Amino acid sequence: MPNPTAAILVIGDEILSGRTRDANMHHLAGELARIGIDLKEVRVVSDDHAAIVAAVNALRAAFTQVFTSGGIGPTHDDITADAVAAAFGLPLAVREDARAVLAAHYDRSGLDFNAARLRMARIPEGAVLIENPISAAPGFSLGNVHVMAGVPSIFQAMVASLLPRLTGGQPLLSQTLRIDRGEGVIAEPLAALAAEFGDLSFGSYPFIQNGSYGSNIVVRGTDPARIDAAMARLSALAAALG
Amino acid sequence: MPNPTAAILVIGDEILSGRTRDANMHHLAGELARIGIDLKEVRVVSDDHAAIVAAVNALRAAFTQVFTSGGIGPTHDDITADAVAAAFGLPLAVREDARAVLAAHYDRSGLDFNAARLRMARIPEGAVLIENPISAAPGFSLGNVHVMAGVPSIFQAMVASLLPRLTGGQPLLSQTLRIDRGEGVIAEPLAALAAEFGDLSFGSYPFIQNGSYGSNIVVRGTDPARIDAAMARLSALAAALG
Lengths: 242, 242
Fold this sequence. Notes:
Chain A is of the alpha/beta class. Chain A contains 9 helices and 11 strands.
């Protein structure tokens, strides 16, 4: 049975303006590989209602799971919950269990539970909450769309609560061989090896270090014995390059 | 006149598998802001022909400019040029000027100009070359799609050759005020300020530092005097929080 597939949707002008470098896609990509959910696409869109609605609907139709990051805080630019509810055509309203979690958190912290903070208890009808052990305001899963915060520490905590609920597949394993030669030298024998091991994927990632070209050859797959076999052949190829 | 818009398409299994953290989108996002091209979307797709073709066609129809990163090297997994040619329905073949640039480079470097390396001279019909001062193999512009390498130093050099050719708009300016209080405290007055300064965008980016909540409020726009005016009001708001 093929692995489930996934997409990540990052919502935020701060990435698109170049102000912030995204960390969440990189974290979740690694976690998904570990549990055998194949990440197929990432999109970053701005804090724009129509753009979020369109992306949520395109991605939830195309992939088994969709994970969103960002836009669920208390400020006017936090519009993800509204957009996800609109994408599903479902109402969004303050929900009692989410309100109670927030009320207890602000009570403990001595903070005012004001109208802006109450916005974070607005949950689309029928969603399942995703726990936020850090700042209380929950994420939620609506169908196959999982809505999480953008602050990296909170995003990571939500991912940790969410992933055990999802059905995984065969973990994506990989091994890397570094070759201190340009890609052009190994390209032809590598293509032949990739054709022979059709059940594995062979990636070649060139780099430049101290002015010299090198390549990391990454062999990925789900069967460790096959990866070992391919790596042995690859090492022999590299050794033959001298 | 509104600014031109743009999308970035990052092509590469290495990002989706969690192996590599993308650097190119962050670099180009900053450069585009500087010249007044509004980055509206980023997509990351895998080394898959159909996925690249679909993304290229969706993005080139939706935005003024599309920039791609990755998949133009000599190895079997470098399929971007083929996919972009297919997206436009145009033939792809070795082009004499690209071949000559590569031949001169390999001659200087004492490297073999083999069949794998010759693949990098395959350019879609009608494209304009993008210079690569680092490793010679050119990128290309086909219509509004600009195809560049994935290695960050080469990507950045190609961006530097390409951007002066493109029509920009009004640079996106921004100023940031750090408030060492949670977003919930300032959300309501901030929303009122954002409504009053409708020509600017107000982003609120929460963070957690040493266990305390804070927010960076970023005011973006194209008119420096308006941003100054908004920042003065914002500082007064922050001071009033005590």
